[in-house]
Design a protein that fits this description.
The chain is of the alpha/beta class and about 450 residues long. Helix content is about 30%, strand content about 25%. The protein is built from 13 helices and 19 strands. β17 (about 415-425) and β18 (about 430-435) form a beta hairpin. The structure holds manganese (II) ion (2 copies). The site of one manganese (II) ion has 2 residues, from loops.
Length: about 450
């Protein structure tokens, strides 16, 4: 199969230019002006924008958590991803507590995902227990293509203490890997929750009050001090607020290599949503923050100080969210978004809030670079032919009825987008066409990632 996408505007992280793309099999083999079609099928895409497939570096499909399992498994989750222009997801696999190995965690996630995915996929590995055996497993993980890890500074089932944090970051840094870290101060948050309960403050509007900006910023600060001592790069995942962001900037000024990821929900909503009737549907951790923080995030997005945007897709059904109707601490934490991120960020570009090049950088190019996905992240020769064709004049209103998550609501209900993907290729295969999913579960392949080059 050989075809030529003609007369479209190709957008990379650096520039937008009218270029033709020649695809042969799964790869982009030529990009240039007025390419001859020869034996290739010619497809006219004039007037359309062409982007590299989006990479969602933060999903939780088929995750057992909060006494249930997230609403999307790898089949429904990756199908929803494709319908929103995402051709590659990196999901969080996890080691189990109680003497279990990283390899057991990896095998478990392969069992969940293999032969079910409609887009390409890879895993980060969460480390929840550290000992000599775990340390020896890091090289094994790298051999399996896992080069990024996850550490939690909160949640009893996942939390690692400062001692292990230091040891893990140091080991990962030496191996050309790094960790993404969930930064929140667990101890003080527990105390604030106890205070709220004692005072009978049990509605979802208390969720942001017990997880304030300062307790995220404190954890980011502590993480970065530890990372500096360990001489290791690190990523702050789902960064939500101004104070935490200032900690990142301070560490960078200090010569540290720190990556920052944020999520579209923090760019769109503020903590006011928790006062709504359906406030519990917005409960995720860290929570949405105030307007000042949202403004700071957008500014950092614009000037390139935030590196990536990912969804933290972690959906729960309404009846599960209802478990916390009378006690906000019982609401399962997490929100949907895997189908919305690329269209959302491209809408921001289409309306002039950011450039299309920046959207591509945040949603694809930087993600591929940082996570060692050598064949992804750009429309250029040799890369996988993961291509999204975008109609910047097509209007789309998000509703639970036109979303494909296995979920009975969406926090994005009613959001109007100007511009929407109209066709998507995954390694040369058309998988989405004019509103319809035309892919195949199982077409998605596991992607081995590379360690960082020193
Ligand atoms: Mn998290
Ligand atoms: Mn997460």
């Amino acid at each position: 199969m050989k075809y030529l996408l003609k007369n479209g505007t190709v957008v990379t992280g650096e520039k937008s230019e009218q270029l033709d793309i020649l695809v042969e099999g799964e790869k982009i083999v030529q990009v240039g002006k007025n390419l001859p079609s020869k034996d290739a099928q010619e497809i006219d895409v004039s007037g359309k924008l062409l982007f590299p497939g989006f990479i969602d570096g933060h999903t939780h499909f088929d995750l057992e958590v909060a006494g249930t399992v997230t609403a999307d498994d790898f089949e429904t989750g990756t199908k929803a991803a494709i319908l929103g222009g995402t051709t590659f997801v990196i999901d969080y696999a996890s080691q189990d507590k109680g003497g279990h190995t990283l390899k057991e965690g990896l095998d478990k996630w392969h069992k969940k995902a293999d032969d079910k995915c409609s887009c390409d996929y890879s895993f980060h590995m969460s480390i929840v227990e550290w000992n000599e055996k775990t340390e020896q497993e890091i090289q094994d993980m790298i051999d399996h293509g896992i080069t990024s890890f996850k550490l939690y500074m909160t949640y009893p089932a996942m939390i690692v203490n400062d001692c292990d944090m230091y040891k893990i970051l140091k080991k990962l840094g030496k191996c050309g890997c790094f960790a993404g870290v969930h930064c929140e101060n667990a101890g003080v948050i527990d105390a604030l929750i106890a205070e709220a309960k004692k005072e009978g403050r049990l509605g979802p509007e208390n969720h942001p009050l017990v997880r304030p900006d300062t307790m995220e910023a404190e954890a980011v600060h502590r993480l970065l001090v530890i990372a500096k001592e360990a001489d290791a790069p690190v990523m702050v995942v789902h960064l939500t607020n101004k104070k935490a962001f200032e900690e990142v900037m301070r560490a960078r000024a200090n010569g540290q290599e720190v990556y920052a990821e944020t999520c579209p929900q923090y760019l769109e909503f503020t903590c006011d949503v928790y006062k709504r009737e359906d406030g519990r549907n917005f409960v995720c951790s860290p929570p949405m923050k105030g307007q000042e923080s949202q403004d700071a995030l957008w500014k950092a997005i614009k000037n390139g100080m935030i590196d990536t945007v990912a969804t933290d897709h972690c959906p729960f059904q309404s009846y599960e969210k209802d478990w916390g109707k009378d006690d906000f601490t019982k609401i399962p934490n997490g929100c949907p978004g895997v189908e919305n991120l690329y269209p959302y960020m491209l809408d921001a570009a289409n309306s002039g809030k950011i450039t299309f090049e920046r959207a591509v950088e945040l949603c694809s190019t930087n993600v591929a670079k940082i996570f060692g996905c050598d064949n992804k992240g750009s429309i250029s020769v040799g890369k996988d032919a993961d291509i999204v064709i975008y109609d910047k004049d097509k209007d789309f209103t998000i509703s639970v009825d036109n979303m494909h998550s296995d979920l009975d609501h969406t926090i994005w209900e009613g959001k109007q987008l100007h511009g929407y993907p109209i066709r998507t290729y995954l390694r040369g295969n058309v998988v989405y066409d004019n509103g319809d999913f035309v892919g195949t579960p199982g077409l998605g392949e596991y992607v081995k990632r590379s360690p960082r080059k020193h």
